[in-house]
Specification:
This protein has about 425 residues and is an alpha/beta fold. It has helices at about 15-30, 50-70, 80-85, 85-90, 105-110, 160, 170-180, 205-215, 235-245, 260-265, 270-285, 305-315, 345-365; strands spanning about 5-10, 30-35, 40-45, 75-80, 95-100, 120, 140-145, 145, 165, 185-190, 220-225, 250, 290-295, 320-325, 375-380, 385-390, 395-400, 410-415, 425. Among the domains are: about 5-120, Rossmann fold; about 125-250, 2-Layer Sandwich (Transcription Regulator spoIIAA); about 375-425, OB fold (Dihydrolipoamide Acetyltransferase, E2P). About 35% of the residues lie in helices and about 20% in strands. A hairpin with a 4-residue loop joins strand 16 (about 385-390) and strand 17. Helix 7 (about 170-180) runs parallel beside helix 8 (about 205-215). The protein starts with a strand and ends with a strand.
Length: about 425
């Protein structure tokens, strides 16, 4: 077989790890991976369905693939495919729609002479666990350790798209980390839907135990913990990261709202006091830590007073940056039935306020490290004669391009802000 495949991945780091794994499966049966903008024999679109915007983007990408290569096959998988397969069938040019289990069976489905069904769905309550990790797509690797979620958040469709929480074994995760190290990748980001819920599928050992075992893997120089729920961050985890040589001083901790009323409506498993206590515990133990947070604006019932509570709450915390999302109604969620709908205009206004606040928080955090020496891992892309990278504590820096620095960890001095609020630096 001498065929080509192109991928387009929407959404989270977990999707990127799974797309990379599917790519290796297809490579093993003779497919060559090419850029999505090129004419391919097969297009695989791995979708997200967190917001309506994500759904729209998927539909746009399908149409784009067919414009590039009208005779190509198009496979759609991911969360949108699991939740709305019939809706996707109405889009011209889609050959196969694969649910959460079937996405890892693409080679088998392509070779099947008996295949007739366009939709290959699955029961969400009986999903298998499929390990995955990314290779050679970026400077770092996304390593999946967990999938699915048991949390009942009223706005979220992830449990409907990915099922209940289930985990890999520590033994297999270590094996995958060692494989990543063999490919000369220096940084791993641990990914999943709710990674703090990790429990070894063989013996029940928890997240902290996993971190301690990963620390021992030779060849990996840096680990990052992707988004983790505040109620699942234990003192043991904080203490371990504090003394670790490999786990970076960087946490991303979803907040969603600074109003206890809204958090209750969302059915989040913490209140503002717990969240504040966790932030304070982390910053006390790890003074140079970078902490990011997710915030949702426009949730039903979020009036001006409740939104202002969020603004003031964030301003009083040691938060380094925000990811801001406008609430999006999702079918089959509890939130869609709640009163107090917020207009799109109000959502846009509040989102703008929080993005301005995020810029200020990030600049203030970066400013503290001007004229200091730090360690940064640099990417592979030459962008306008600069290499970009991140310090241990997630400050985005740039240095004049030099081939010898590509994908290397270097000692640098942070000098000054550029026009995009990145930090111009020099190699020491």
């Amino acid at each position: 077989m001498n065929k080509t495949v192109a991928f387009y991945t929407l959404g989270c780091k977990l999707n990127f790890s799974e797309s990379s794994t599917i790519g290796r499966q297809l490579s093993a049966i003779g497919f060559t991976k090419i850029n999505f903008n090129q004419k391919a024999d097969l297009y695989v679109i791995n979708t997200c369905s967190v917001t309506e915007n994500a759904n729209r983007e998927c539909r746009r990408i399908i149409r784009k693939a067919k414009r590039i290569a009208p005779n190509s096959k198009v496979i759609v998988t991911g969360c949108y495919a699991q939740l709305k397969p019939v809706e996707i069938t109405a889009i011209n040019g889609v050959d196969m729609i694969l649910g959460a289990n079937e996405k890892f069976n693409i080679p088998k489905l392509l070779s099947s002479k008996k295949r007739k069904e366009k939709i290959n769905g699955c029961e969400i309550n009986h999903l298998d666990y499929h390990d995955s990790f990314s290779l050679n797509d970026r400077t770092r690797s996304f390593l999946k350790i967990q999938d699915g979620c048991n949390y009942p958040c009223t706005y979220c469709t992830i449990p409907l798209a990915r099922g209940n929480s289930r985990c890999d074994s520590i033994e297999n995760i270590i094996k995958n980390a060692e494989e990543i190290a063999k490919n000369n990748i220096k940084e791993i980001v641990l990914t999943g839907v709710n990674i703090g819920e990790f429990k070894d599928k063989d013996n029940g050992r928890g997240f902290a135990a996993l971190l301690k075992e990963l620390e021992k893997v030779k060849g990996i120089e840096r680990y990052r913990i992707s988004s983790i729920e505040p109620n699942l961050i234990t003192n043991e985890i904080i203490d371990f990261v504090k003394q670790s040589d490999k786990f970076m001083p960087h946490f991303h901790i979803p907040l969603q709202s600074g109003s206890d009323i809204i958090l209750s409506k969302m059915k989040r498993r913490y209140n503002t006091k717990l969240y504040k206590d966790k932030i304070n515990a982390i910053t006390k133990g790890i003074p140079n830590v970078c902490i990011g947070a997710d915030v949702i604006v426009g949730f039903p019932g979020e009036n001006e007073n409740e939104f202002n509570k969020t603004l003031h709450f964030i301003k009083d915390l040691h938060i380094s940056y925000l990811h801001v999302f406008s609430y999006s109604e999702r079918d089959n969620t509890e939130a869609i039935k709640l009163d107090g709908v917020v207009s799109k205009g109000k959502m846009a206004e509040r989102s703008k306020q929080l993005r301005i606040l995020s810029d200020k928080l990030q600049r203030n955090f970066y400013q503290k490290y001007i004229d200091t020496e730090q360690t940064a891992l640099f990417e592979r892309e030459n962008k306008e004669d600069y290499l970009f990278g991140f310090t241990d504590n997630y400050i985005k820096v740039k240095i004049p391009f030099s081939k010898e620095f590509v994908q290397h960890k270097l000692k640098i001095k942070l000098l000054s802000f550029d026009e995009n609020a990145n930090i111009l630096s020099e190699v020491k």
